[in-house]
Design a protein that fits this description.
46% of the residues lie in helices and 18% in strands. It is an alpha/beta fold. The chain has 2 domains: 11-228, Rossmann fold; 234-466, P-loop containing nucleotide triphosphate hydrolases (Rossmann fold, 3-Layer(aba) Sandwich), CATH 3.40.50. It has a 7-stranded parallel β-sheet, sandwiched between helices. The mean pLDDT is 90.
């Protein structure tokens, strides 16, 4: 069979197509923006033309559902029927795929809630997009995806397969190829992971690493951008932001309290530490939540710094992408764009899928200055925003994978200009700690939980310098 591409492929996409046709399961561990989606679409179409594939299930984050619909339209050289699973669907709504090349798109948190529909569909190929979403073995989405481990064709797509540690690979591989590591999570950890630290639950190192990597290589095709694409350069800048005296005083008080709790061993649980650090980050962003759940503005410093940069960029007719961690920050930046009478588009957990897709499409085709504001946990996955080459990070999460994914929304196939990232950072604060970890390609919370006392000493040094 000779397959005719609708859109011209890169060499690494052709290699992926041939490997999936040959071995039936494949992990595309490619950096974001390298064309994973097209590679899978071409593979599915080729398998259909060869006579063996009728039904494809794509499971992905909610924010990426509309992207898959557009990518099939763009790259598929044959006719197909595509439907998106919704919360209101019933099994009777899914009875028209016979004798058609049929595609079902479902988000991770919905697919396990509609098992009757998925089982009636009987997929012959299942694609787990952004598969690090199923890295936790006990999560419902992960447990449900393991049901497909015997489907004839399986693929995982992610640029960040191990956001925290090699442990993150296990659940993804039970879906992809259960024979590789077995289905006993405890046995996997005993074989490859060394634990220690608090309650002997912290990852201290790994063992049998050559064996682990050899097994991964059998099932995965790994590509970096510089191995397969000729993309423009990237520039990373820090923009210092000085808090108002009252806000800085509130920050230092909360930081000192955290230091004492860590030093005295009063707080060591991962969730409690994360909450404490998050509250420090909320102060640098400008808003804090009271114990009663009410939101209060405590500083305008970072918002003003963001506004100044936006005005400068709009004067140059630039389209700007702004990422922030908290919804209050997203809304404040978006409100400024609206008040400035600039076309403004918002993507956050509070925005419905249809509105997200429409906003992304309009921003990509907008002429003149515009603004796309995204909550980093939602807007950092699977979408293309390469019409912009200017990115402002108002705030980020502690997670390295969130940051990498966000950067790669603009630095990907189709980008023709050098990309600039401006990071708003309050010096000598948790902002600086987070960015230092991200630049060192480390997850800050994983670092803290590996040694809470080390973080306490870090805070003590900063406190003493202020004194």
């Amino acid at each position: 069979m000779r397959y005719r591409f609708k859109t011209k492929p890169y060499r690494h996409q052709i290699v992926a197509l041939k490997r999936l046709l040959r071995q039936r399961h494949l992990g595309l561990l490619w950096e974001p923006g390298t064309g994973k989606t097209k590679a899978i679409i071409d593979a599915a179409c080729a398998l259909h033309l060869s006579g063996g594939l009728q039904r494809v299930l794509v499971v992905c984050p909610l924010s990426v559902v509309g992207v898959w619909e557009e990518e099939f339209e763009k790259h598929a050289p044959i006719s197909y029927t595509l439907n998106i699973l919704s919360r209101t669907d019933t099994p009777d709504d899914w009875t028209t795929w016979d004798n058609h090349f049929s595609i079902m798109i479902a988000n991770y948190d919905l697919v396990w809630r509609r098992p009757q529909i998925v089982e009636r569909f009987q997929p012959q190929m299942v694609v787990a997009d952004e598969s690090h979403r199923i890295k936790k073995p006990s999560a419902r989405r992960s447990r449900y995806m393991r049901r497909f481990k015997d489907v004839p064709y399986r693929a995982i797509l992610t640029g960040t397969p191990t956001p925290k540690s090699f442990i993150d690979l296990y659940s993804q591989w039970v879906f992809l190829n259960a024979k590789q590591f077995g289905t006993n999570f405890s046995a996997f950890k005993r074989r490859y992971v060394i634990f220690g630290g608090y309650l002997n639950k912290q990852v201290k190192g790994y063992t049998n690493v050559p064996e682990l990597k050899a097994k991964i290589k059998e099932d995965a095709y790994v590509r970096r951008k510089d191995q397969c694409l000729d993309l423009p350069d990237q520039t990373f800048q820090r923009v210092p932001v000085v808090l108002e005296p009252e806000a800085m005083q509130a920050y230092m008080k909360m930081e000192y309290e955290l230091f004492l709790e860590l030093k005295n061993g009063e707080v060591s649980d991962a969730k409690n530490i994360a909450v404490k650090v998050m509250r420090l980050q909320q102060i640098t962003g400008g808003w804090i939540t009271s114990d009663e759940g009410n939101l209060h503005m405590i500083s305008q410093a970072k918002l003003r710094a963001c506004q100044e940069r936006l005005e400068d960029l709009w004067d140059d007719d630039e389209r700007v992408v702004c990422f922030a961690r908290f919804r209050a920050e997203v809304q404040a930046v978006a409100d400024f764009g609206i008040r400035s009478r600039i076309p403004t588009y918002v993507l956050s957990g509070a925005v419905r899928r249809e509105e997200r897709d429409a906003a992304r499409r309009r921003f990509q085709t907008e002429v003149g200055p515009s603004l796309f504001v995204a909550q980093i946990q939602t807007g950092g996955l699977g979408i293309t925003l390469h019409s912009s080459a200017e990115v402002i990070f108002y705030s980020v999460t502690y997670a390295l994978d969130d940051y990498i994914q966000a950067c790669d929304r603009v630095h990907r196939i189709g980008q023709t200009r050098n990309v600039r990232y401006q990071h708003l950072v309050v010096p000598s604060s948790v902002d600086a700690d987070i960015y230092a970890n991200l630049q060192g390609k480390k997850n800050m919370m994983a670092e803290i939980m590996g040694d809470p006392q080390k973080f306490a000493k870090h805070l003590q040094g900063r406190i003493e310098k202020r004194v």
